[in-house]
Design brief:
By secondary structure, the chain is an alpha/beta fold. It has 17 helices and 12 strands. It binds NADPH dihydro-nicotinamide-adenine-dinucleotide phosphate (NDP), 1-deoxy-D-xylulose-5-phosphate and manganese (II) ion. Pathway: Isoprenoid biosynthesis; isopentenyl diphosphate biosynthesis via DXP pathway; isopentenyl diphosphate from 1-deoxy-D-xylulose 5-phosphate: step 1/6.
């Protein structure tokens, strides 16, 4: 088992044991992961220093408030048109806080589609937490690895799309998973040696449609799909949980992070989302990581790795009666995981194609242009036509080419559905 994740940090700049605060650059700071990461940092004064923050540009006021509260050195916004709004918001926030003239120093500003990548290079943080959504996180992920920062990775799509390129760029131990299942696996893997690992077991909540038949799934609405039973998250990952595409991406993520064959990674439905994943060892022992469903735990561990940091997650209360249940996944109603197992085994750009087709199909569903069941059907159809993308990608550009093909094919399929 070869792994990019290990119990000890691997590069010099990750070994911030000097008592100085750990420098953090946070991508996606206004989102679900980003705001919870800032909560964790707020809760641990003196432990972390936020050097840079990045967002898409939907919420300039929040971005500006974060910049001033954490006195960041640099801010990045993806939408170039948002940069003026961010500047205005920074001045307005400074005024609101009563900053005297001259006390307020404007952070360095980066704008445009590569702003997050430029921010990563500029800030040279000890830890880059990638909490952006979508495979647009790939270049920032690679930039973090190339600049020698430790990468706390929530943005699973960048690993899935980048596959071997991300693996090659990462030194041993340079990536710490933040996704709850993979954080759990990393914790369980501390209990034994790599050659003693028999199986990884990924838990899935089952989403809002657990127990639905294929026919029932045909009629579900966007609001129903967004009502996740156990987690409060951003739109795309929430829809992905409902289709089981999230677990599909997590299957590929687990293979890439921990180097375990697909045939030795199981998915089991666990509706309570308390056991976050498990590792079975050669002697039959299964280690599980359990805690209430609260992302602040894996985020805090991602920031502090290999040390545990109190992120404010409540403890399990064994004085209360409760039950933890496990059931098999219904592969007929939720074929996404089987498709991902196939795409992952084939490799090449197929995982990138899978993810890109899904991102487009989710956008079409959320916009009201297609049915819920069309999401995975679209992924399946695009994959079936993707023979040209089976080879190992030689460059990031090649990955983005495969994605562009998949996105445009997925959009065509959504358009055809709309026309009917
Ligand atoms: N939320 C969760 O609990 C979990 C999330 N994850 C993963 O973490 C990632 C983030 O998820 P989540 O926080 O829920 O998503 P959200 O939609 O809540 O947040 C996404 C964030 O990314 C920002 N963003 C979008 N485009 C860019 C860009 N080009 N450059 C910089 N920032 C950008 C958004 O800013 P803006 O709104 O301005 O565009 C926003 O701040 C996803 O990969 C998800 O799968 C994994 C496990 C759990
Ligand atoms: C919190 C987290 O890590 C999400 O990725 C979560 O796994 C979503 O829940 P599902 O198990 O329903 O996909
Ligand atoms: Mn997860």
């Amino acid at each position: 088992m070869s792994t990019m994740v290990s119990a000890q940090p691997g590069k010099d700049r990750q070994e911030n044991d000097r008592g100085s605060p750990c420098g953090v650059t946070l991508l996606g700071s206004t989102g679900s992961i980003g705001t919870q990461a800032l909560e964790v940092i707020r809760r641990n004064p003196g432990a972390f220093r936020v050097l840079g923050i990045a967002a898409g540009g939907n919420d300039p006021a929040t971005l500006a408030a974060q910049a001033l509260e954490f006195e960041v050195e640099a801010v990045a916004v993806a939408r170039g048109t948002a940069v003026e709004d961010v500047q205005l918001a920074l001045y307005a926030e400074a005024q609101r806080l009563g900053y005297a003239e001259g006390r307020f120093r404007l952070p360095r500003l980066f704008a445009g589609p590569d702003a997050a990548t430029e921010l990563v290079r500029d800030t040279e943080a000890d830890v880059v937490l990638n909490g952006m959504d979508g495979s647009r996180g790939l270049r920032p992920t690679l930039a973090a690895l190339e600049s020698g920062s430790r990468l706390a990775l929530a943005n699973k799509e960048s690993l899935i799309a980048g596959g071997p390129l991300v693996q090659r760029a990462a030194a041993p131990g340079q990536i710490t998973p933040v996704d709850s299942e993979h954080s759990a696996l990393a914790q369980c893997l501390r209990a034994g040696d790599a050659d003693e690992v028999q199986r990884l077991v990924l838990t899935a909540s089952g989403g809002p449609f657990r127990g639905y038949s294929e026919e029932e799934l045909h009629e579900v609405t966007v609001d129903q799909a967004l009502a996740h039973p156990t987690w409060s998250m951003g739109t795309v990952v929430t829809i992905n949980s409902a289709t089981m595409v999230n677990k599909s991406l997590e299957l590929i993520e687990a293979h890439l992070l921990f180097g375990v064959d697909y045939d030795r990674i199981d998915v089991v439905v666990h509706p309570q989302s308390i056991v976050h994943s498990m590792v079975t060892y050669a002697d039959g022992a299964t280690m599980a990581q359990a805690s209430p469903p609260d992302m602040r735990l894996p985020i805090a561990l991602g920031l502090g790795w290999p040390r545990r940091v109190d992120g404010g997650t409540p403890r399990l209360d064994f004085a209360q009666a409760s039950s933890w249940t496990f059931e098999p996944l219904d592969d007929a109603a939720f074929p996404a995981v089987g498709l991902a197992r196939h795409a992952g085994k084939e490799g090449g750009c197929l995982p990138a194609v899978y993810n890109a087709a899904n991102e487009e199909a989710v956008a079409a569903f959320v916009a009201g242009n297609s049915r819920f069941t069309s999401i995975v059907q679209t992924v399946e159809r695009v994959l079936a036509e993707a023979d040209a993308w089976r080879a190992e990608p030689a460059s990031v550009d090649e990955i983005f080419e495969s994605e562009e093909w998949a996105r445009s094919r997925a959009r065509e399929l959504a358009g055809m559905e709309r026309a009917h």
